[in-house]
Write a structure and sequence with these properties.
By secondary structure, the protein is α/β, with parallel strands linked by helices. Helix content is about 40%, strand content about 15%. The chain has 17 helices and 15 strands. The strands form 3 sheets. The protein has an 8-stranded mixed sheet with strand order 3-2-1-4-7-8-9-10, with helices on both faces. A 5-stranded mixed sheet has the order 12-11-13-14-15. Helix 7 links the parallel strand 9 and strand 10. Helix 1 packs across helix 3, helix 8 crosses helix 9 and helix 13 packs parallel to helix 14. The protein is elongated, with a radius of gyration of 24 Å. The protein starts with 7 loop residues before the first strand and ends with a helix. About 45% of the residues are buried. The chain binds nicotinamide-adenine-dinucleotide. The site of nicotinamide-adenine-dinucleotide has 27 residues, from helix 4.
Length: about 425
């Protein structure tokens, strides 16, 4: 086997929300990059200089990189072998029966297998279940006879950025690298050293665990206030008052705020631990709490208003979190579906997402109930509250689990909310 002759520094396989900003960032640091995606529409958009989704600063970066000629696009994974470094940023969903779905990664490996030569370095940037990096290394050793860590290099370098903060966090969040065998960690570090973030070397399985448990921690952190919100409703208490009582001057940590906790990562990454858990069901219960927030809100509304049949409900927000256009696995969609099953007349407004929605004015016009599903910054302005006052039905019910307007009430009537938020 002769060493690889590379025509590019790095190939990024999967130009999604992780892969595209990463490919652009590598190119912006002077590397020659092959960006690979099997979606022709995505490649076409990029050729035309169009960002296929919103990520802060990414459009300016795309414009810069376009001009530099340092990014070439390709459709076939095997083209990745033209670069010395191959970084996999494909999706890793979970099957509904609590097991990682590695089909995209397996298929990319099979496409690459025949093209890999001595000197190639394969980095898994996707979030994976513990043991996956060793599986990938074992797969290459088994099918090609490579010594991993000396002939060919394999590592996990998990992506830990939050959507919308990619370009800031790529230079600040410590870059965890778990390399297989003698030199994989060192070789992959040479690639990620183009960024300013500190590099932390560890074992592959520790890198995998660190990533999924980062997300498990967040998912659990938000399940607790969500469960508390439900407990407060049962006992006639105010969740924001209880949170204030818990947190005020308490020196041993505090509780987070409630909300519609979801999104493509939090909602599936816990399954990568749950598939072999020593406490089966514990994280499923966390997921169950977060997943039941829309139903909890809907039932609490019905307790206050009676049947929703034929009543207009305005839902503000479809994205899974504030100020993003990412609707994947958003609980707002679940809320809309549940409301429709109650025969409510649902009107949705979201200024960020691709799904078609009506204007804010149209959504609010004569609405009897307003539900804030996403705490987008523009919703949290006093002007939105004023618009609710002028457009909605008299004294409509406002549901705000995010405490958008600082009124400290999950459920409040418009007049009450306006008074409370101006008083705080
Ligand atoms: N989105 C996030 O904020 C985030 C953050 C940290 C980690 N992650 C992890 O990163 C990984 C990627 O997530 P994402 O949100 O970027 O996914 P994504 O779905 O946005 O991107 C995947 C891309 O891969 C392409 N693709 C699929 N199969 C392909 C194939 N066979 N060949 C070439 N291209 C193919 C798709 O067209 C898509 O553009 C996942 O493991 C995810 O859990 C995501």
């Amino acid at each position: 086997m002769s060493p690889t002759k590379s025509s590019a520094d790095v190939a990024v396989v999967g130009l999604g929300r992780v892969g595209l900003p990463l490919a652009l960032s590598f190119a912006d640091r002077g590397l020659s990059v092959i960006g690979i995606d099997n979606d022709p529409a995505r490649l076409g958009a990029l050729q035309a200089g169009i960002m296929p989704f919103c990520e802060t600063g990414a459009k300016e970066l795309l414009d810069r990189v376009h001009g530099s000629g340092r990014l070439t696009l390709a459709e076939h994974v095997a083209d990745g072998a033209r670069a010395r470094h191959i970084v996999i940023t494909l999706g890793t969903p979970s099957f509904s029966h609590i097991e990682i779905d590695m089909r995209d990664i397996r298929s990319a490996l099979d496409d690459l297998l025949g093209a890999l030569t001595v000197g190639h370095a394969l980095t898994l940037r996707s979030t994976v279940a513990p043991g996956t990096t060793d599986f990938v290394a074992g797969y290459l050793a088994k099918h090609r006879g490579f010594q991993i860590g000396t002939d060919v290099f394999v590592a996990h370098a998990p992506e830990r950025i939050a959507a919308g903060r990619f370009l800031a966090e790529i230079d600040t969040l410590p870059c965890i690298i778990g390399g297989v065998g003698a030199r994989s960690g060192e070789v992959v570090a040479e690639l990620f050293e183009v960024f300013d973030a500190p590099i932390v070397q560890t074992t592959p399985v520790q890198a995998e665990l660190a990533k999924i448990w980062t997300n498990i921690l967040r998912y659990t952190t938000f399940a607790l206030p969500n469960l508390l919100m439900m407990d407060c409703e049962r006992h006639g208490a105010n969740v924001f008052d209880v949170i204030e009582l818990i947190n005020r001057d308490y020196p041993r940590g505090g509780i987070a705020q409630p909300g519609m906790t979801a999104g493509t990562c939090l909602r599936k990454d816990f399954a990568f631990s749950e598939e072999r858990s020593n406490a089966p069901g514990m994280l499923l219960a966390v997921s169950r709490v977060n997943e039941s927030v829309p139903l909890f809100l809907l039932e609490a509304v019905k307790r206050r208003t009676g049947s929703l049949s034929g009543r207009k409900v305005a839902v503000l927000g479809l994205a899974f979190k504030a100020d993003t256009d990412d609707e994947r696995d958003s609980l707002a969609h679940k809320l809309v579906r549940l409301l429709e099953r109650e025969l409510a007349d649902v009107a949705v407004h979201d200024p960020h997402v691709n799904s078609p929605t009506v204007s804010l004015e149209e959504a609010l016009e004569d609405a009897e109930i307003v539900m804030v599903a996403t705490n987008h910054s523009e919703f949290c302005e006093p002007a939105t509250l004023e618009l609710i006052g002028s457009r909605c039905a008299a004294n409509c019910l406002i549901v705000d689990p995010w405490n958008c307007w600082g009124a400290g009430q999950v459920f409040a009537y418009a007049s009450e909310l306006a008074a409370l938020s101006s008083g705080r």
